[in-house]
Structure formats: C-alpha cells, structure tokens
Specification:
about 40% helix, alpha/beta, binds iron/sulfur cluster, three-stranded mixed sheet, eight-stranded mixed sheet, 10 helices
Length: about 290
C-alpha cells in the first residue's frame, strides 16, 4: 500500500541554475522511489536504505504547482523545471496516480520549459504534453539560443544487463531505455543520456566508456553526460553490502577510493571527463547539452 501525503511546497527554486542540467527549478511529485537503485544518492541522506518501502505520493502536487506557477508566470520567472531531481517521475506507481502527467499539464498551461530526467519507458505515454511544452514554452532569455523547451535525458550507469539487474533492480533494462530514447528522437525531441553514475571498476574503464558513447550515438542521443559515483552516509554502507555479495574483490578498492571523500579523487574525475570529451568528439556527439 503506497502512502499518500500532503506536501507543503512542491516547486524548489535553486539559488543558481544547474550548469549541467540547466534547471532553475526542481519538482518531485513523489517521495523516495520504487526503482530502488543501489547507488541512489538519496539513500545517503535522511531517506536512508528503505527508499522503496518509504515511497509516498504527494497527492496535492498538482494543486500546489498550479498556485506556484501562476505566481512565477505573472513575474515572468521562466526557467527549466527538472522533473525530477530526487525521485523517478515515471516510476511504476505513476501508472496509477498520473501525478507527473497532471504536473505536466500545468507546466504546459503556464508555458514553463521542462527537463525530464528518467530511467523509465513510461515517459512515452506523455509525449503529447511534452510536444506541447516544446512548442509553446518560454525559455529564459539567456537560454533562448537553445531553441528546445523540452529536454529529455535518460540515465544509465551501465549498458550491461547483468550489472544493471544488480544495481538498478526495478528500473527498465538499459536496452529498453535506449529504445525509448530512439522513439523520442523519432518524434523530434532534443534528448540525450546521462551516464551518471558510472560505477568504479564495474562500468568506468576506457573501453566501457567507449562502448557507452558508441551506443549513445547509435540510438541517436544528441548529447551525453558522464559523472562519477557519490556515496555517503548510510547509502555508502548499503552499497558496500551489495558489492560484498556480487563483487567482493572490489571492496578494498572502493574503501580506498572513497576513504576520505564522498566522491572519487579529483584525478579520477578529470580522467572521466577527459575520456568522455575525447570519445564524444570521436563519435560526433555533444558532451553536455550545449
Ligand atoms: S531511479 Fe533515480 S531516484 Fe529512483 S532509485 Fe534510481 S537513482 Fe534513485
């Protein structure tokens, strides 16, 4: 039984625009997530290990959003809304509740641009609304050259089905996500892939990165992002438990990599970025949105 809750607020305005995803706002119609990815960064916060069991539906999300966007639209405070930053907007329960769809109707009504961040094929259900937003929304002036008001980014941590089954147990398979991306591209959207997080010693080798970017090109992604894993709090211990079960030989390497910080070293991150940029150039695909 999914918990239904009343949220106090629904639209978070960022102090600064996110330089990677270009969003000025974020919107999370659900609390926690039933895709239950092992590496999910929300596990490290107060949400803890039980992100599936604690799933809650913010049933008043559309009502709150209508009020907040009415106010923002009057002041012409247009900006990309990230849907979502701390949950999966098209997770399994969305089939029943249609909260994300209702929020999209309101976003379309007030003409805000939207950046959809997803692992779900259910997004295909809402292409009608996403098209309307793409056509009619108003971009912030400094992003007017972007010319796209709907951005769709699929997230993948690996393209290996067996690894995905371990680390993303309830999400659609990588291949299904890639096929959904291709369909979305056929509908004329601007869309790409966030390989975030790549998993150290599991999906982050030069060869694996090359395979991932090659696949992104094959499935017509306009851009890719590549980012490192973040592990902290109870989320780190939870991830280590899974690692111990499936890749015990990697545990000492992880303990070393995350010994001091929540992320691998600067050198590791620079290596990822350099390699990703190089491969994007080789395969003729943008690194990041623009
Ligand atoms: S789909 Fe996203 S929000 Fe949901 S568990 Fe996975 S990483 Fe977390």
């Amino acid at each position: 039984m999914v918990k239904e809750i009343f949220a106090k607020t629904i639209l978070n305005k960022h102090r600064r625009r996110d330089s990677w995803f270009l969003d000025d706002y974020s919107l999370n119609p659900y609390q926690f997530c039933d895709f239950n990815c092992i590496y999910c960064y929300i596990r490290g916060s107060k949400y803890g290990e039980n992100i599936k069991e604690g799933l809650a539906v913010k049933i008043n999300a559309p009502t709150l959003l209508e009020k907040e966007l009415l106010r923002r639209a009057k002041r012409k405070e247009y900006g990309f809304i990230a849907l979502s930053s701390a949950t999966e907007p098209w997770m399994h329960v969305e089939e029943k509740y249609k909260l994300t769809r209702k929020c999209l109707e309101i976003i379309a009504k007030f003409r805000f641009p939207v950046h959809c961040l997803t692992k779900s094929t259910l997004i295909l259900r809402d292409l009608d609304l996403l098209k309307e937003i793409d056509k009619n929304a108003i971009l912030p002036q400094d992003l007017s050259k972007l010319k796209h008001c709907t951005l769709i980014t699929f997230s993948l941590s690996t393209i290996d089905e067996k690894v995905a089954k371990i680390f993303e147990p309830n999400a659609p398979k990588p291949e299904e996500r890639l096929e959904a991306l291709q369909k979305i591209k056929e509908h004329g959207f601007y869309a790409g892939i966030a390989f975030i997080p790549v998993l150290p010693f599991i999906s982050d080798s030069d060869e694996q990165l090359e395979e991932m970017i090659k696949v992104a090109k094959e499935f017509q992604a306009d851009y890719v992002f590549v980012g490192a894993l973040t592990l902290y709090g109870v989320g780190k211990e939870f991830y280590y438990k899974i690692l111990e079960k499936h890749f015990p030989e990697l545990l000492p390497k992880y303990r070393q990599l995350f010994k001091i910080f929540n992320q691998p070293s600067k050198a590791y991150q620079l290596r990822l970025e350099k390699k990703a940029k190089e491969l994007c150039e080789k395969y003729g695909i943008k690194y990041k949105i623009w």
